Amino acid sequence: MNGIREIMRSRAVPVILFTVLALVPVYAAVFDDRFLMLFATRILILAIAALSLDFILGLGAMVSFGHAAFIGLGAYAVGILAYHDIWAAWISFPAAILVCALFAAITGAISLKTRGVYFIMITLAFGQMAYYTATSLSAYGGDDGLTMWGRSEFLGTGLFENDTAFYCLVLAILLAAYVFLKVLAASRFGRVLKGAKQSEARLQAIGIDPFGYRLAAYVIAGSIAGIAGALLANQAEFVSPAYMSWHRSGELIVMVVLGGLGYLHGAILGAIAYLVFEEVLSHYTQHWRLIFGPLLILVVLYARGGILGAIKGKSS
User: Which stretches are transmembrane (predicted)?
Assistant: First the structure.
């Protein structure tokens, strides 16, 4: 009986979460709040990136400090194509995914030969390599970034130009990514990743080499983060090397931990909480991180499992 209740609770949280997110355009339309639409869209985009990181971090214990590189690469793929007057989303978005998948495959094949702090440092190094490469692209703005004079076109329509329609598109992509990763986590593929996290030696003893599974997971996560980057470029109509800095990677890790490590919808909750905290506290002081830091420490110490851990603790 307790097991059934636990399943119901675990399913109720994402259903409630996505229902609330789906009602945001209704609230914004009733109160004519354009800022809310723009802010909520940014939250969803970063939630997609945090979701992809949670997949490899929570499931496979791959602490990547270069995950933001995929956001930047996806954004630059769209921005550079737009610079050359290629606005079709059916070209730019697959290009963003392909670029990120290739970068993830090459860097992942090297990084996954290491473990622990060495994996953290090598992913950080690859992320910074991408960052400094972007700053050196003087033809595409260099350090100053690249301005996009519009958004991508979808089948010849201005779907991306309408804030409400764009929000709904981003929400649909977030939901699709969540369902896809949830199914993948529950499959044999996901069980191998979990097994490798617990004991790689046991898997190898029964004839399973987890390297290929980890690399595939890394490529999938990088590709999804690339989609987030492509969406971010369209939402801001601007591309910057700052998208792929190690600070952004650190923020994604904070989102995952804050929401609840290992729960995919926890990454979404963490993205919402982080960006709302940032928005509210930044109105009072530019040193808002000095306030947010101790709050995060309190969450880690007293709410094991982040926000989701706190919710489960109260419901039990």
Answer: 38-57, 64-83, 89-110, 117-134, 164-190, 211-232, 252-277, 289-311
